[in-house]
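Subject: Predicted fold for Septin, 412 residues

User T.R. writes:
Posting the sequence so we have a shared reference for the thread.
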Amino acid sequence: TFLFVLSKHNEDIRCLTTLSHFGFECLPTQLVNKSIQKGFSFNILCVGETGIGKSTLINTLFNTNMKENKTSHFYSKVGLKVKTYELQERNIPLKLTVVKTVGYGDQINKESSYQPVVEYLDAQFEAYLQEELKIKRSLVDYHDSRIHVCLYFIAPTGHSLKSLDLLTMKNIDRRVNIIPLIAKADSLSKMDLQKFKSNIMSELVSNGIQIYQFPIDEEDDDNSQCLLPFAVVGSMEEVKVGKRMVKGRHYPWGVLQVENENHCDFVKLRDLLLCTNMEDLKDQTHTQHYECYRSSRLQKLGFNDTGPNNQPVSFQEMYEAKRQEFHGQCLREEEELKQTFMLRVKEKELTFKDAEKELQDKFEHLKRIQQEEILKLEEERRKLEEQIIDFYKTKTASETSQAQVCANVKKD
Ligand code: GDP
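User M.O. replies:
I've generated the structure tokens; pasting them so everyone works from the same file.
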């Protein structure tokens, strides 16, 4: 039912004004309701040295005290701490995942400090890709852990970026939306800050580092891109300014108000992250960074959108070609295995034959020796028998001659 109000603009014409929306004008409302029902999620990665103010800034941004133990400076390598929080503002639920580096910048050799960060970013893309490739996908209730924004905390040195900053940003800029921040900006004067900001930006440009580009809004002449890197200050301390209590940091010479745009860029950053650009950050993550990962990963697996002569190839054709290729490769490998097996059998046969021949020769040799031994023994036996015969002959002869002698003696 629609409500109409009769308005009398003209005495003769009756004008009807609608009090409620109808028709496809309601489409955005449907989207809003659906999104609220589904809830929102946002994943932030904070990269920066230990004690640079990562936890304090996150607490200040979300106005919560996410209790944490103090991190140590004595880790032997860089790690990542992941925590998910269920927040609610009015009736809007937000599943916030905060990933923070641990031990970043604390090692003497910082060459591979960026590696765990890169691995983490890729692992989240890989998990999403694996879900996408499943036959039964459940992307609707899948907890998407891909990082939507990386807040890169730069130490307020007032000079330039450290080589670690450049190395890390260079290695992650194709994987995540980087928003560079000058941490603890309250330690720099306004003039130093301006100079530091322009130094950083020119260093990023000269090193070819891509940072997050804000969508150009023609109506908004207050361009946030010019403020980069945002100079931020974090604090959960409530300080009295006039009659109001504000978040700030109390110094002997006055109060730095975190939410005062003349004091730092905190409000700009908060607006950008939470009010104006959260959806764009998520879109960029999906359409730019994830797409880049996905295409290089699929190409590595051998998939391509076009064939050898730049003709489009369907997924089925590609699958068939891959299957054929795989089948061919299996056959080739089988043939190779057979050949090596035959070769080895032949080699073994030859060695067996050699060994057999050797044994046979040995046997013949031994047989010959044995026969010679037998012959020798035969000869000796024959000689012995002859000697025995001779002996008996001599014995008989001597007995006969002895008998003769005795007979002769008796006769005499
Ligand atoms: P994390 O190790 O990077 O998480 O650093 P923390 O957030 O634990 O902060 C370390 C110390 O720096 C704490 O004593 C904070 O009070 C202080 N701190 C945090 N943010 C700021 C800031 O913006 N300015 C100043 N001066 N100190 C800060």
